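Open question from group meeting: does this chain pack into something compact, or does most of it stay loose? Before anyone orders reagents, we agreed to write out a predicted structure and look at it together. Recording both the input and the output here so the notebook holds the full record.
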Amino acid sequence: MSEPELSAEIIAGLLVLYHACDNSRARAIRRLWKHLNKCGKYGVYRGKPMGRKSLAQIIYEKVKEDHEEERGTWLVLYDFKGVKANSTFWTNVKRVENLVNGGSLIQYSVFKTTSRIGAIVVLRLAKHYGAEAIMYRAEKIDIK
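Structure tokens returned:
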């Protein structure tokens, strides 16, 4: 027997049940609701992806539609003037590293990657979180 898709209707049904039943059933529904919320944020429920996409994933998908990938060395410089960088910004930068299979922080205000799409995503993330940001294409020059 296959499991039903978890949908908004099922979740709404859980809420209706929660408000219409006794304490023991309400506690069970509340535990299930918490479990579903946790799965939605952090993983999968019964083998199916759940929950919201991260901001990094949303921006990445949009940029991938609008821009072609171009390999090279890309630098994104950003400065959170007068604003402390949100911890979610750093989490999303790590997500971008995984999405583009590479990239790293050279220092707290410089991100380096070989993916143009990854650089654009980090640029947009930095601006979203209140930083002034600029992107450069870099070329390594060996001087003897």
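Observations to bring back to the group:
The chain has five helices and six strands.
The chain has two domains: 8-49, 55-138.
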